[in-house]
Design brief:
Elements lengths: L1 E3 L5 E10 L4 E13 L4 E3 L2 E5 L8 H8 L5 E7 L3 E3 L3 E10 L10 E8 L5 E9 L3 E7 L7 E8 L12 E8 L3 H10 L7 E6 L10 E8 L9 E6 L4 E6 L5 E6 L7 E5 L2 E8 L6 E8 L4 E7 L8 E8 L2 E9 L10 E3 L1
Parallel strand pairs: 1-25, 7-13
Antiparallel strand pairs: 2-3, 3-4, 3-5, 5-23, 6-8, 8-11, 9-10, 9-12, 12-13, 14-15, 15-18, 16-17, 16-19, 19-20, 21-22, 23-24
């Protein structure tokens, strides 16, 4: 249990799974937004779950490595996420101080690249950031092949760090022509589903475990739209149904069984198929409950092989590790320990 006292809280989850020098690193970004009445500022807390490959690495090594965060942080807001040939990608750059969250007031060059699937730059711009902001655009010419591209942004300062410190955003490009293009441009602001993303809590889908799965359906402009669909196993049996609740977002539960495969389909979007890839042996953090005063999380595993492993749960805030705690699993899908944050 993790208690957040004296704050008004809400949460948002954006989960990733990574491998580091130290071990299998399952990360859930449990963002607890709070307002401090005394300091008149907003903030968030970030929780990590990991274990080490060997005894040579320690929690202290991990803290030293992960507190070496760059001071600068880049974010780019685009007018859409899906484009057609001939469209213009309009975007705005925000350059902030990663510790304070405030815009950087100085003048600085920002390099923005449009990368293809091989990692080569198809287009590049150099923008001048003034007071932490800059605007730019890319024209999607007919020379670009249809597919997925990455919008990358960095500064000279960020080149001193791992490329993971750069900003990345996926952009989709489609090619249509003539009457079809005019029709698509006129209707893509409507309610047609263009893409659906599935985000299992904790970053992974554990086999033989009940998993909470978030999803978001968007149209061609990247705006949330209403959608509903089903998850079926390899025999075509419906094992879960889902529908959006708010601005294209929703939740459902899925319990994958060993030896079975699962895919999602969307009503009115016959070409869409999403295949889930459950993890046979792993661990992750799950949100159990939250109120205006506290947040409770659970650590779940789906194999006895991890019962003897020493795990660490750690909390970071603005690049600083506030606390950590070591623990061992009591068994499959069991962990009960009290961690209090004031």
């Amino acid at each position: 249990m993790i208690k957040i006292s004296d704050y008004e809280t809400s949460h948002e989850q954006n989960a990733l799974t990574d491998k580091t020098l130290y071990g299998e690193f399952h990360r859930i970004q449990l963002t607890i937004n709070y307002y401090n009445e005394m300091k008149k500022q907003m903030g968030f807390l970030l929780f990590f779950l990991f274990t080490f490959y060997s005894q040579a690495q320690t929690i202290e090594d991990w803290i030293v490595d992960n507190e070496k965060n760059p001071v600068e942080k880049i974010y780019i807001h685009t007018d859409a996420e899906n484009y057609f040939t001939g469209d213009t990608v309009w975007f705005k750059v925000y350059l902030t101080d990663s510790n304070s969250g405030r815009l950087i007031p100085s003048a600085e060059n920002v390099y923005v690249s449009f990368l293809d699937q091989s990692g080569k730059s198809a287009m590049q711009l150099i923008l001048l950031s003034l007071n932490g902001q800059a605007s730019g655009s890319f024209v999607i010419t007919d020379k670009l092949k249809p597919g997925n591209y990455l919008l990358q942004a960095y500064t000279n300062y960020l080149l001193n760090f791992n490329p993971k410190a750069h900003f990345y955003k996926q952009i989709s490009v489609s090619r249509i022509s003539g009457f079809s293009q005019n029709t698509a441009v006129n209707t893509r602001t409507g309610n047609m589903v263009a893409d659906v993303a599935f985000l299992p809590e904790g970053g992974i889908l554990l086999e033989n475990t009940t998993n909470l799965v978030a999803f978001k359906a968007i149209n061609k402009l990247g705006l949330g739209v209403n959608a509903k669909g089903t998850v079926k196993d390899e025999k075509g049996t419906v094992v879960a149904s889902f529908s959006t609740d708010y601005k294209g977002m929703g939740l459902f539960f899925l319990t994958p069984e060993t030896g079975k495969t699962y895919s999602a389909a969307i009503e009115g979007f016959p070409s869409f198929r999403y295949k889930f890839e459950p993890t046979k042996a792993g661990a992750k953090i799950q949100l159990v409950n939250h109120t205006s005063k506290e947040v409770i999380v659970n650590v779940a595993v789906n194999t006895e092989e991890l019962s003897d492993e020493v795990f660490y749960i750690a909390n970071m805030y603005r690049g600083e590790v506030l606390f950590y705690q070591a623990f061992k699993m009591d068994g499959v899908n069991k962990y009960s320990s009290l961690i209090t944050v004031h």
